Amino acid sequence: MVSVTINPAGRPPAFARGLPVTVDVPDNGTVADIKAAIRAKFPQFHLSRQKLSVPSDKKAIVDETRVQDLFADASAGELVVKDLGPQISWRTVFLIEYVGPLLIHPVFYYYPRLCYGQDVQHSSMQTYVFALVMGHFVKRELETMFVHRFSHATMPFFNVFKNSGHYHILSGLLLALDVYRPKYSAPAVAGTLMENSTFLNVCAGLVVAFELCNLNAHMVLRSLRPAGTTKRGIPYGFGFGLVSCPNYLFETLAWTTISVMTGGSPASILFLVVATAQMAAWAMKKHKMYKKEFGKSYPRGRKAMFPFIF
């Protein structure tokens, strides 16, 4: 057995005021076993709330790490535990994020008198955008339920409000309020590209194509991570030959096309800019992670998100 002394990082939560404590785990145990031992002493200290690290480094130790790899002394050691606060599953957060636009857009599209104080004779553009936006977020919900595998089971509960704001407000409330308003009604855009069936069909075809490419990228990433693991591999396949995150690239192209369909409506441009900036930050983080983890094995010519540029 290995005796591990657990010290609190700062002031411990009320339900763990007994810290520091010493727990015993098997010689062949893992960090997950240490967390389970801590919870055995403090039942409210759920495993998802615990962040364990060595005293000299605040970086979290992954659950699969073996105890014998943590300490120079094979019989004893010391770790620090931090309370991450109430947690919520990533899958639940994603489902909540994406349901916002699915509820908001139909209200503005089907009940314009309630939203604008008058009826709106929808233009072809408004109908196309409504169908494409709804299709996008239905796809995202289905991917969340059946495709995505998450490296972390949970996130802090209060993140759900921050994360949902991006979708509920920018791609939900503001986009719907802007795109379905009388300014873009059939009489208002008569004779413009927004009523041109060829233009709209080409744009819609591009959006669907980009969405399918995005789905393909997600399926490639899923195939690299067996269920119940945090394992990663080098992704290959369509799009991955040029960038580390083609899923973000194709999503950006889809929303760019939708913005073009609207004639560059202010809300569509705002959402496109904010979403692209956020995805670019995620892409760069993943790109650096891939290069660090796989070293010389990782293809040198790949960019993070935009081919040959970034």
Automatic annotation (TrEMBL):
Q: Say yes or no: keyword Lipid metabolism present.
A: yes
The Swiss-Prot or TrEMBL record annotates one GO molecular function as: oxidoreductase activity, acting on the CH-CH group of donors
Which residue intervals define the domain 3-oxo-5-alpha-steroid 4-dehydrogenase C-terminal in the entry?
154-310
Transmembrane stretches, start-end: 199-221, 233-255, 267-284
Q: Which UniProt keywords apply?
A: Lipid biosynthesis, Lipid metabolism, Membrane, Oxidoreductase, Transmembrane, Transmembrane helix
One Pfam family named in its UniProt record: Steroid_dh
Predominant place of localization: membrane
Membrane topology term reads: Multi-pass membrane protein
Its annotated compartments are: Membrane
GO biological-process terms attached to the record: very long-chain fatty acid biosynthetic process
GO CC annotations, alphabetized? membrane
Checking PANTHER family in the record gives: 3-OXO-5-ALPHA-STEROID 4-DEHYDROGENASE, VERY-LONG-CHAIN ENOYL-COA REDUCTASE
Write out the similarity annotation: Belongs to the steroid 5-alpha reductase family.
Q: What is this protein identified as?
A: 3-oxo-5-alpha-steroid 4-dehydrogenase-domain-containing protein
